[in-house]
Design a protein that fits this description.
This protein has about 700 residues and is an alpha/beta fold. The chain has 13 helices and 33 strands. A 9-stranded mixed sheet has the order 16-15-17-18-23-22-21-19-20, sandwiched between helices. It is extended. This is VWA domain-containing protein.
Length: about 700
């Protein structure tokens, strides 16, 4: 329904003035004796008077107010939990739900069906499949809330067993509609044995022992025993026997194992099925562990024994991926030999020194390759040689001249994600001993910490790094870092700020750069069954600019050796490729393309997990469904009471809602007025011309 009215911004009496103005104009124009008939003269006068009156009226700038009222019928959403836990009882209710939908639609209500995996289910209800591997009832209800925001959604009929294994509990939400829950499933605990949880390291090292722990829950099997097995590639590695002494029992089983194969290894934990179990699907769990061949090797060369060495070693060994060798000249004879072992990072503590102790050994380490180097300066450092060997900073100083400084974080440093508030504690730390002199940053270097001399805040750098050169370098211009760790612990009972700072700097300069011109990699290392696996593609030219248009061949190989090939084109703005339908397990991938008439390839792996969340709980939660219905003003019924719910909804049918929208605009903006004025002027002018007058 549309209502319109004209609103005047001036007194309505001005309308009479407009009419009078039009009449006067027409009278004086057509008052002389006409050359045509009196009737025609009167008609032309009326046309001219109307034209002038309308123009004068529009100059008053009247407004046009339009009010449109729409009828919004009540809407009902039938929300169905189509997860695997509903597979037994859910399909039995679909015919009754179809009848409910038809009855509500016949009464003039708009009815939609929504499931866990789609906004609106358009097919016939009896064809609905209960195959979702997870249940998020909160998302299901919030989707209905979002999809019908601002509309007259009055009721949601929720069919579920109340088992929600993802997201928040639906009772924590607030909803602007009534929720009528239909409970299905059995609320009585089942006789069952299940693996509730598995604990294992994501990463282990080749040849090392590592634990795999399983939490096993049994219900209704007191006095019985079961066998728990750890398997890999179909072969049993180890077994343990457990006995259940109570009706509701919990057992924890730990296996110690190792691997001689690199890469992600797939292990399985299985509990022997017992007679009378409700389901055996939860007797099996998969475990994936990434077996790494070796650690990052770090060499710390020191001029002499020093508390800093112990402190830095402790910081490094917090990361299990680091293997640290410490060599001290004059103390460790191995320090004076040059081993064949290669390192990923070299830390030089007060080396090179003023007396060139071990200078030839240091030089040989640095000449072998472009291994990143972290220089820690002190009172014995030869700043001239350090300046020649690092790419971060040049220090000009006189031998033996030192200064005592504390550290101040540079807030403009953004290369690492560091907490400026946490690092403000460094200004309270005991001073470090640094060479006194002039510090000049080299091109591409960045300052992490500045030097504070007492209360004087200087712009001299204390901690500097350069990651852009052939050799990555970092320089800490002072000794005494061990005092910082002790003081931080005294102030905060923790050792976080100093340790995190050095850990991140060391990780940044020791990480290996990827210089490949062709890269294909999954956006995540792990996916769940049913998820889309997304690959990112990057192709570069000789100066490392991204290029596009290459044809990519991607091969996915599962654990059984089955190869699935795919082909796609790397396009600008569309460099990702998605695939779905992969089964659980470790999947290897190989991508190839032609670049400069040369075949480039890249390989890798990812994991597809079957979390089996739907099998972990098999007892329906009617208590939650009752609470959800009660707090929203709805009804709770069981699956065999859907007819009663239909009668309730029809009896308590919501009324239509009237939505009105008001629009206020200037009358002159209506295009039809222009054409009306053009018509009046054209008709008058055409008639006068036809009669031989202008």
């Amino acid at each position: 329904m549309l209502l319109t009215e004209i609103i005047f911004q001036t007194s309505p009496w001005y309308i009479g003035f407009c009419l009078l103005l039009g009449a006067a104009y027409a009278f004086f124009l057509y008052q002389p004796k006409p050359v045509w008939s009196k009737l025609l003269n009167t008609g032309l006068a009326i046309l001219r008077g109307a034209l002038v009156s309308i123009i004068a009226f529009l100059l008053l700038n009247p407004l046009l107010r339009s009010i449109q009222t729409l009828v919004d019928k009540p809407k009902v959403v039938i929300a169905i939990d189509n997860s695997e836990s509903m597979a037994n009882d859910g399909p039995k209710t679909l015919s009754a739900l179809a009848t409910l939908r038809e009855a509500l639609a016949d009464e003039g209500l708009e009815v939609a069906v929504q499931t866990l995996n789609s906004e609106n289910y358009q097919d016939e209800l009896p064809k609905l499949k209960f195959d979702r591997t997870t249940t998020n009832l909160s998302d299901l209800l919030n989707n209905a809330k979002t999809n019908y925001e601002g509309r007259n959604l009055t009721d949601v009929v929720l069919l579920t067993d109340g088992i929600s294994n993802q997201g928040l509990a639906p009772t924590y939400g607030t909803y602007p509609f009534r929720i009528h829950s239909i409970g299905v499933g059995d609320t009585l605990p089942k006789r069952d044995v299940s693996i509730k949880a598995v604990s294992a390291n994501k990463i282990a090292y080749l040849g090392n022992q590592f634990p795999i722990q399983a939490d096993i829950v049994a219900s209704g099997f007191q006095g019985q025993t079961a066998t728990v097995s750890l398997r890999q590639n179909g072969s049993t590695i180890s077994t343990q026997r457990i006995a259940f002494g109570q009706k509701e029992d919990f057992k924890q089983v730990t296996f110690q194992t190792s691997s001689t194969q690199k890469g992600v290894q797939h292990y399985t934990l299985d509990v022997e099925p017992l007679k009378g179990e409700f389901t055996t699907r939860n007797n099996h769990r998969d475990v994936y562990i990434d077996i790494i061949d070796g650690k990052e090797k770090v060499l710390m060369l020191a001029l002499a024994t020093h508390p800093d060495i112990k402190a830095i070693r402790t910081i490094l060994e917090k990361n299990l991926n680091y293997e640290v060798d410490v060599k001290i000249f004059g103390v460790n004879p191995a320090a004076e030999t040059f081993p064949e072992k290669k390192y990923d990072l070299i830390i030089l503590h007060q080396l090179p020194d003023l007396f060139n102790i071990g200078g030839d050994i240091v030089q040989r380490y640095l000449q072998r390759d472009n291994t990143p180097v972290f220089f820690i300066l002190g009172s014995q450092s030869n700043t001239s040689k350090v300046s020649q060997l690092n790419s971060a900073v040049t220090v000009v100083s006189n031998p033996g001249q030192i200064d005592k400084v504390s550290g101040r974080f540079n807030p403009n440093f953004k290369l690492l994600n560091l907490d400026a508030d946490k690092l403000s504690i460094l200004e309270k730390m005991p001073p470090l001993t640094v060479p006194f002199g002039e510090y000049r940053l080299m091109p591409g270097s960045e300052t992490i910490l500045f030097q504070n001399v007492g209360n004087l805040r200087t712009n001299k750098p204390l901690l500097i790094l350069n990651t852009g050169g052939a050799r990555k370098s970092a320089v800490l211009a002072g000794e005494g870092i061990w005092q910082w760790r002790l003081e931080e612990y005294a102030l905060t009972d923790k050792q976080e700020a100093v340790d995190e700072l050095l850990q991140k700097v060391i990780q940044l300069i020791s990480v290996k750069e990827d210089k490949r011109k062709f890269r294909v990699y999954p956006l995540a290392n792990e996916y769940n069954v049913g998820d889309k696996v997304t690959f990112e593609t990057e192709v570069y030219n000789d100066i490392y600019e991204k290029i596009y248009g290459q044809s990519i061949r991607l091969e996915i190989t599962d654990e059984k050796g089955k190869v699935q090939p795919y082909t796609y084109t790397n396009g600008e703005g569309n460099s990702r490729f998605e695939l779905s339908g992969l089964r659980q397990g470790v999947h290897q991938f190989k991508a190839t393309t032609s670049l400069n008439n040369k075949i480039e390839s890249v390989t890798g792996q990812f994991i597809v997990r079957d979390l089996a969340l739907e099998s972990l709980t098999n007892t329906a939660d009617y208590g939650m469904l009752r609470a959800l219905a009660q707090q929203s003003g709805g009804q709770f019924v069981k699956a065999n009471q859907i007819e009663q719910l239909k009668d309730y909804l029809l009896k308590n049918k919501a009324v239509d809602r009237l939505d009105s929208t008001e629009d206020l605009s200037e009358l002159i903006q209506n295009k039809w007025l222009f054409f009306l004025l053009l018509f009046l002027a054209t008709l008058e002018w055409g008639t006068r011309k036809y009669q031989g007058s202008y």
